[in-house]
## 1
Amino acid sequence: MSSNRLLVIDDEPAVAEVIGNCAEKLDFGVTIVTEAESFWASYSASPPSVILLDLQMPRTDGVELLRALAEKECSAHVGIISGADSRVLATARRIGEDNGLNMLGTLQKPVRMQDLRAMLRKAINEKQTVSAGDLSQAIKDDQLIVHYQPKVDLGSERQWDIKACEALVRWEHPRYGLLMPDRFIALAENSDLILPLTNCVLGMVLRQLREWDKDGLALSVAVNIAPQLLGDLALPDKISGLVSGFDVSPSRLILEITETGAMTDTSLTMDILTRFRLKGFGLSIDDFGTGYSSLIQLHRMPFNEMKIDRSFVMELIDNEESKKIVSSIAGLGHSLGLSLCAEGIEDEEALMFLRSLECETGQGYLISRPVPPAEMAELVFASASKSGWNRPPA
Ligand code: C2E
Ligand code: MG
Ligand code: MG
């Protein structure tokens, strides 16, 4: 019998059946219930590994169920599927997380099959653990690859004017398939593997820049630098040595450091970042808005770009508060003389709002998901032949 057990509670049997069919194809044992009493009966009889719950049901509501699951110290993955608006879904998810539940995410009805499959796969993947030993071997065996996500110029007359992209690492795991960084970056950061991983990513990026140059693509690439690396005063020399070995100008690289990382040991970080800037690298403060920068520290740090965290950008349309936060961040960034990049642009309205704030560049699924290098080159060539805005990408 499958070790993945799914319990679905939804008062619409037709919806529950579609969910059940999809899960069975992924080898889940599925139980469907339509009201709370049978939910608890099934839960006690055979504890599920994944629970999907509807928020609105006639005699109970999903938030009540979330609280009761938390009281029982439920360790299953919990996903929310509902017709409620995205703000209600986000709040319900937060209630689950705040109560210590292992929240999988939310899906809005009508549910798209690919999103449901992705959610269930995420639950399966999270059961598959990887160790530092596996990661170390993977680095040696060249199992890490880099995908690139375009950064478009939002001020350009052309629709997708791509001059830069972000390098995002993936692990082609021989058994588990393509693993996303959230599965192994923390592992690398908490062991001594973050330096070899970063060197490996930088090596791939530098080789790729040389390849693109041959094709006439003068792109810049942003590379994520983990905060743990900023404790090493020799880092600027190590990275610039690597870059000059490939005969690439440091100005083609933008090093992204998260706001939280940059503000940890500020005097050491300042020393390292200043030397990076003197050597000609671009510096970007990533995930801005999620940390606690003081204005004075921010003013002193030698960044040239600020990336607005995707959590605010993704909620721009449904959430007035996010609009205010993004406007304030944009005002702050510009007043400090920083170029602004918004990450997580998923819809046209968010894009237009960011353009109205004169945000310089943007990244997001609306433009493109992170893609392998060859597709990145195709995106640049395709964009060069387009013009005008208000036209969805082909
Ligand atoms: P990040 O640097 O903030 O990268 C942006 C993340 O947002 C990427 O996730 C990207 O796929 C995702 N994203 C971009 N646009 C959208 C959108 O419109 N909607 C949504 N929902 N997401 C969007 P990814 O590739 O899973 O990377 C997650 C994080 O892992 C990165 O966040 C970065 O902190 C870390 N990471 C990735 N590659 C490396 C690396 O080579 N070294 C280090 N140290 N960290 C890395
Ligand atoms: Mg980044
Ligand atoms: Mg980010």
## 2
Amino acid sequence: MTRLTFHGHSTCSLETDDGLHIVIDPFFGDNPVCELSVDDVEADFILLTHGHFDHIADAIPLAERTGATIVATFEIATYMEGKGLTVSPHHIGGGVTYPFGYVKLTPALHGGIVELPDGEGFTTLPAGFLINLNNGKRFHHAGDTGLLNDMRLLKGMVDVAMVPIGDRFTMGPDDAVKAVEFIAPNVVIPIHYNTWPPIEQDAEAFKAAVGSLAQVEIMTPGDTYDF
Ligand code: NI
Ligand code: MN
């Protein structure tokens, strides 16, 4: 069993059977809907979808305190290595086997700037993650992205998917329904909405629109989902 905990916005963590903690897009302190301080978060691996502030804001303090390995695109990994952190660079389409499973970077259509001090020059492609966990379950975090026809390639490969529905900076609910159709996960969890007024959305309306395409789990910050 893997325990997924949602921390609001796009931030989540996975705890495996072996007690490993994987944190995706750590955004705690400045996250207006987050219940946690970064000081209270455990991490063995930190996965970063892209360099925008609302996805990497707390990556450095979390990695410094825990010694966690940062998994990200080559450019973000190079930036983090320059800050003295342990990194594992990937690039789109490339996977690596970790103690908890196999992680592959998936394409995302979005902005690539690294919004941390001295981040200029590390602009990169944004990404999502496909994680084949050791317990056989397959988890996908789409990152920040518009609808991509390439999402069809994930069909049959995902049990639980997190997809953005906020609109404005990512897919909105209508395109997110298309993404669910393309990816065909068993379970979909909407993310990247209701953090601030510009990305307010009605998750219940999204759930209704998804209908029988997938089971929709609406999570509020602090909620857990076991799979
Ligand atoms: Ni972004
Ligand atoms: Mn974002």
